[in-house]
Amino acid sequence: MSARNRELFALIPAALLVSAGFAAVFLSRDDLLGGLSGTNRVSNVSLTYGAIFLGLCVAAHLVLRVTLRHADPYLFPLCALLASFGLVEIYRIDDGLARLQAQWFVIGLILFAGTIILLRDYRRLERYRYLIAIGGIALLLLPRAFPPVNGAYLSIRIGSLSVQPAEFAKIAMVIFLASYLRDTRQLLVTAGRRVVGVTIPPLKHFGPLLVIWGTSMLLLFYIRDIGSSVMFFGAFLAMIYVATDRLSFVVVGVGIFALGGYLVAGHIGHIADRVDAWRHPFDPKLLQRASGGSYQLAQGLWAQADGGVLGQGFGQAVLRISGNPECVSTVDCSLLPAPHTDFIYAVIVNELGLAGAAGLLGVYLLVVQRGFKIAMLARDSFSKLLATGLTSVFAIQVFVIVGGVTKLIPLTGVTLPFVSYGGSSVLANFVLLALLLLVSDRARRPDTGAGA
């Protein structure tokens, strides 16, 4: 069976998940019921949603079949599976948000196809690396001109839309680093001096990379965005390790970032509050604090503990207390704050248990495995570093939000890719996916003797 046919058949489980998930939500709510005819209506509506989802994915598949015949056949179906899971889970939380998420999913697929068609030769991006880097930093700083959300400057408002520029900036920074390290990776290793067994690169070559470290610190200090700061610097370390094969660079980088984070956190109240909530989530004083406390994290931990191994059942998580006439939306009156974004993982664990959460994380691991395999197969340095950076930033984003919700690290405000509600996240991750498939197609293409 050809790669593209395998991709086509692999989309079926995602569509089945949509149908089964919506049917489970309808039944848990007693929606569309009414005897035998009502049960049939549940089936019809659920199957219709599944068929629409499958039709949209098949349309994107046809674009891949025509343009990227040699691309990885599993990456797109895996992301479709995550998106289907997210759509059902968000619908279970709030119907209105699910409709908006479905719209963003459609726009994301259009952007996905547009990126593939317009960037067939993605290596042209190298020519504009400094312009892309400046644009990325500008996107990161833009939210500072708008009011903060929960103490951090994460989004900008365009009319009624709220946009998180950091989602797109992460891709810009990876493109810049891939291009810059391709040119300087040898000089970073051979032109440096060894001090106490550690290679110190020449400042003129290491300077732009210090700018990345400074940008990460700036994110902490200026816009108070812990999650983006960790994502950027984590991807930077992964790429510099692949470029130089020097573990010492990673060790020193982690040390410098930890030192900078410690110094900055001591002067930013918002970040210090997050650290305190992480260390003492059940402290009564922090639990009762109206702003900057640990109520959100503690509720998330209780929800996960309540899920147990197999969970309470799909659609069975208690997100709101019935009987309050002022509660119109589950999101606004939820017992678990931000159940559709930051804490959607806690809702999943509560309803599907440890087993369901392990399954979800297993899908993410498969996506990361395919991404790193693309990096290994890539034939030129820029492609290899680009695939490494994109995969790393994706993996670190999952680690940052899951680690925050499970109290492994301080909680941050990033989304769970393709699952959490958020138009910016959906669009940016579809662009990221398109770039990975472009690299994959070039890497898996039969060698015709043409230069890379």
Automatic annotation (TrEMBL):
Q: What do the Gene Ontology cellular component annotations say? A: cell division site; plasma membrane
Q: Which InterPro entries match?
A: FtsW/RodA
Q: Name one GO biological process term.
A: regulation of cell shape
Q: Which Pfam families match?
A: FTSW_RODA_SPOVE
Q: How does it sit in the membrane?
A: Multi-pass membrane protein
Q: Which residues cross the membrane?
A: 47-67, 74-91, 103-119, 128-146, 158-181, 202-220, 226-243, 250-272, 343-365, 385-406, 418-439
Print the keywords alphabetically: Cell shape, Membrane, Transmembrane, Transmembrane helix
Could you state a single Gene Ontology molecular function term?
Answer: lipid-linked peptidoglycan transporter activity
Subcellular locations according to the entry: Membrane
Q: Which PANTHER family does the record associate with it? A: CELL CYCLE PROTEIN, PEPTIDOGLYCAN GLYCOSYLTRANSFERASE RODA
Q: What is this protein called?
A: FtsW/RodA/SpoVE family cell cycle protein
